[in-house]
Amino acid sequence: MSRIVGIDLGTTNSLVAYVDDKTGLPRVILDRDGQALLPSIVSFAREGVLVGAAARRQLVRRPEATIYSVKRLMGRGYEDVKDELRYFPFRVLPSDGIVKIQVGARDVTPPEVSAIVLKSLKDRAEAHFGEPIEKAVITVPAYFNDSQRQATKDAGRIAGLDVVRILNEPTAASLAYGLQKIREGVIAVYDLGGGTFDISILRVKDGVFEVLATNGDTHLGGDDFDREIVLWLLEDIQKKHGAELERDPEAMQELRLAAEAAKIRLSADERTALTIPFDAFTYHREIARAELEQLIERLVANTLRSCRMALADAGLSPADINEVVLVGGSTRVPLVRRRVGELFGRMPHSQLNPDEVVALGAAVQAHILAGGITDMLLLDVTPLSLGIETLGGIVSVLIPRNTTIPTSAREMFTTSVDGQRVVDMHVVQGERELAKDCRSLARFELSGIDPMPAGMPKIEVVFLIDANGILQVTATELRTGKASAIEVKPTYGLSEADVERMVEESFTFAEADVEARLLIEVRNEADTVITHVARALGQGAKLVGVEERTAIETALEALRRAREGSDRDLIREATTALNRATEHLAEVMMDAALKGALASRRADEIMDR
Amino acid sequence: MDHFEVFGLPRRLGIDAAELQRAFYELSRRSHPDFHQAAPPERQAEILEASARLNAAYRVLRDPIARVEYLVRLEEGRDTKEGATVKPKAPPELLEEMFEIQEALQEARASEQAGGLDAAAREMLAGQRDRLAARYRDEEARLRGPLSEAWDRSGADARAGVLAAFKDALATRAYLRTVIDDIDEALGEVGEGHVSHRRH
After folding, report:
1. Catalytic: which of A112, A146, A191, A380?
2. What is d(CA A501, CA B79) in angstroms, rounded to the nearest whole number?
3. Considering the entire predicted model, what is its pTM?
4. What is this model's ipTM?
5. Nearest residue in chain A measured CA to CA from B34
6. pLDDT tens digits, A467-479
7. Mind giving me the DSSP string for A244-271?
8. Which CATH number fits domain A1-181+352-374: 3.30.420.40, 3.30.70.20, 3.30.70.890, 3.30.1370.10?
9. Partner-chain residue, chosen from B48, B59, B199, that has the shortest CB–CB distance to A404
C-alpha cells in the first residue's frame, strides 16, 4: 500500500506527520526552514497565493485578501457565522448554502482555502520523501458535524489528496500517547485549540481505544480568548484616545495580533506590557494575568460544562478518570490547566507537545490503515444525534449521539398520496427536539417509485455513519428489491460537480514560487509605505517646508511607478529612498504628537485633581 | 442476525459485562474497516455492514435495560427499530399521587408568567420527584435483577408471563421518566444535555 501521511488541519496551525519505518514512531515533517507548524493562513495576490509564514506577514498589510482561521467557516452557512464576521477583515458573502469569501474579483469557498494549506503540506511531504503523496488521514474536531467533516474531505480532494480517513483530534492525540506513554484505564482528552474545543473520554484496554463519549464546541478556542482581549482593549483605547478602530481592518488586525501575543506571554509571566504604534497615536498598556483570566473565565467555564456532559453520557464521574491529557495550544493558559485540574480532581498533563500531538496521532492512524500497525484499534463515536424531520417539525432520532461508528439505522418510508412517485426526507443532526433547532444536513429525494395507492410502497432507507463520521444513505423498494434513486441536496455542502470544478480550478491558486513571493513582499512593503506617507503628507504638510514636501512627493511618485513594474530591486530602492525622504517629516510629526499627548495628559491630571 | 447471534450468545439476559467487552474488542479486531483498507469495494461494504451490526449489538447488550427492551421486541417479532416499545403507563398504586402532581404541574405551567411556583408547591414537587426517582430506580433494579433472572430460568411455557411482566415494568418506568422530566422542567432543573435522553 502506498504511503499515507497524517495531517492536522488546524484553525491556527497545520502540520503533517508520518510514522518512521525504522523506529515505528511518528514524526512531524519540517519545512525547509526547520519549522513544524504551518500557519493556516492564505494570502491571495495577483502573482499567486502565499501560504503559512509568508501569508502571516500579509495579515496587517493586506487584511482583506489574507484569510486566517478559515476552519471556523468550514461547512457552515452565513447565518451560523454572521455574528463573528465583524472580527474578520476579509469579506464573507451572504449566501443560501455554504459561505463564500470575496477575494479581489472572485469568490472562494472555505474548502478551497483549506485545500491551499493542505497542498502546501502535501508539497512539504513530497519534498521530504522524494515521491508523490496521494493519501492522507486528516483530523477534525470530534464535535464537527457531518457538513464540517464533508467540507474537510472536499478540501483534501481539491488539494489532490485521497482522504482515507477523517479522524477526530482528541482520539488522534490518544493514539499518539497510546503508542508510548499511556497506561490502560479511562482517560479524558481535553483539546482546546485555536478555534475549537473537544472533550473525549476513552477506555484504553488491550490495544483498543474505545471512545465512551465526546462533547465540545466547534466555535470555542484561542481565537475567542483573543477576541475578549480585543474588545476590552477597544474600550480602553476609546477611553484613552477617543479612537474608534473597529472599522479599520489594519488596526484591528494589529490589535488582534498584539492581543494574541500578550495572551501567550501571560502564560509564563504574571504581567505583560503591550505597545501598538497606530498612525495617530501609540497605544500602551499593561495587562495582568488576573485581568486576562477574568476576561476568559466564562469561556473556560463553557468547556467545563461540556466535560460534565461527556462524563454524564459515559456514565462516569470525575473520580473514574485515571488520566487527563491536555491537547491544543490553548491548554498552555494557566487558568485552563487550573480549572481542568479542579474538575477532575487530578493534575492534567501534556507530556507530548500539545501543538504536535494531534498530527502525530494522525500519522499513527495512517500507519494502522496502511497495515503497519495491527495491534491498535480505535473505536470512535458519532458526536451528535442523527435524526429525520417528522410531522410537525419534530425530530425522530435514528442514531443517538455517542454511538460507536460505523453504525447504521433503518427506517421505512411510504407514500401519502395515490400515485406519488417521489418521497422527501430531511436529515438533521443535533440534540434538540425540533428540526429547526438542529443542524440541517441534507434533503434526500427518493424518486422513481412505481405509481401505487398511498401507503403501498415500502421503501427501506438505511442511514449509515461510516468510520469517518460521515453519513451515507441508501434506499431499497422492498417489494421489488430495487435500489431507489436518491438525490442528495446538502444544506451546507458542495455538490459533486462543485468539487470537480474546484479540483480543476485549483491550479489557479498555485502557491507563488520564490521569485513571485519576493516580488509580492516588496510590493506590499511599498504599498504600506505609500499609504503611510500619503496619510502623513495630508496631516503634516504644514510642518515642513515647500522644498522638503516636493522632495517627498517626487520620491512617492517614483515608488508608485516602480511598484507597477516587476523589478524587485528597483521597488526596494525606491522604497528606501522614500523612507529616507520622509525621515525628517516623521520626526517632526512624532514631536507634535508627543506634545499633544503630554498636553492632554496634563489636562487629565488637572481634571483628576 | 439478531444482536445475541452477533456475539454467538443464547437469548438470555444474564450477560457478563467484562466478557461481553472482551468479545466486542475481539470481534472488532476482525470486522473493523481499519484492517480491511486493501480489500475490494464489495468486501469493504460487507465489512462496513458487519462492523455497524457489531456496534449496534454491543450498544444494546451492554446495557441491562436496553437488553430487556430489545428482547421484548425480538420476542414480538419487531426487530426493525430501536427505541421505546411500550406505552407509558401509570402504576395503579400511584394514581392518586399522580393526580396531585399533574395538578401542580398544570398550575406551574399556568403560573409561568406570574413568576412561577410558590415555595410550598416547589417543595411538594421536589419531594414527589425524589420519591418517583427512587421508584424509577427500583423498577430498573427489578428489570435487571429478578425479572431478567426469571427469564433465564423459565422454560418455553412460562416465558409469556415473564414477557408480560417485562412490558409492565417498562411501561411503568417510561411513565415515571416522563413525569420526573416534567417536574424537573417545571422546577427549572433540567439537567445538562438531558432533552435528548428521554427519546432514546
Report:
1. A191
2. 44
3. 0.86
4. 0.85
5. A369
6. 999 999 888 888 8
7. --TT-HHHHHHHHHHHHHHHHHTTT-SE
8. 3.30.420.40
9. B59
